[in-house]
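check these C-alpha cells.
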Amino acid sequence: MSTIAVLALAAVSVVACSDPGGSGASEGSATARSSVSATAASAAASASASALASASASGSVDPAQVTPESLSDEELGYTVTSVPEGMDATQAEIVQAYAAYSRFTWRLWLTPAGTGAGMEGAEEVMTEAVRAYIEGQYTALEPGRYLEGQVRTAVTEVQVYDQVVPETADVIVCSDRGDMRDYDASGQDVTSPDIQGRFEYALSLERTADGWRVSGERDVSRNECSV
C-alpha cells in the first residue's frame, strides 16, 4: 500500500480498499488533473447524479439509449468502450447507475485533493457505507495530490439477483489505466507501477427507494481482461 488510499468500497459488510500506489488500485481510484474547473466539476457531478436518480425513480431507462457514448465523459477523460448487448430495462438501469458512480469517483480522484466538488452528491450514486469510507480516504489525502491519465472501461456483464430483498446486482468491468501517473502536491511524479494496467472488477449494486446504488467491489483479475 502507498502512503494514501484513494479508493475504497464496502463489499457487503466487509470494507475493501485500494490506493493509487498499491496493488490492484480500484476502479474509482484515480485523480488525473482535470481541466474542468471546480464549479464545472460540481455542476457536472450534481447533474449526472440527479439525472440518474430521476431516471431510476421513474423507471424510464431505455436500453437503446444506454450506449458507450452516453456513459462516457470526454472532458473528464473517462471512456466507456462497450456495454453488453441485448440488455433489458433493468440491466440498462444498473449499467447507467454504475457509470454514474464511476464518473463520480473518477472525477473525485482526477482532481487535485481539496479542490473541485469533493463528495457533494455522493449519496446519489453509492450506499452510505461506501460513501463514508471513500470520504474518509478522500479527507486523508495530502491537499493537492492527484493522479493523471485516461480511463477506458468496458462493461462486460450484468447479473441481476431479483429473488432477494433488496434486489442486488453485479456489474463486471475491465478498466484500462495503462498511462496513469501519480503526483504529489509539489508536482513530483511518485507513480508506482501497481496503479497501471488492466483491472477487472465485479461491482455490487443494490436497489434502494431512489434507484440503484453501488454497495461494494471485489477484484477479479489483473492484466487478463480486454477493453
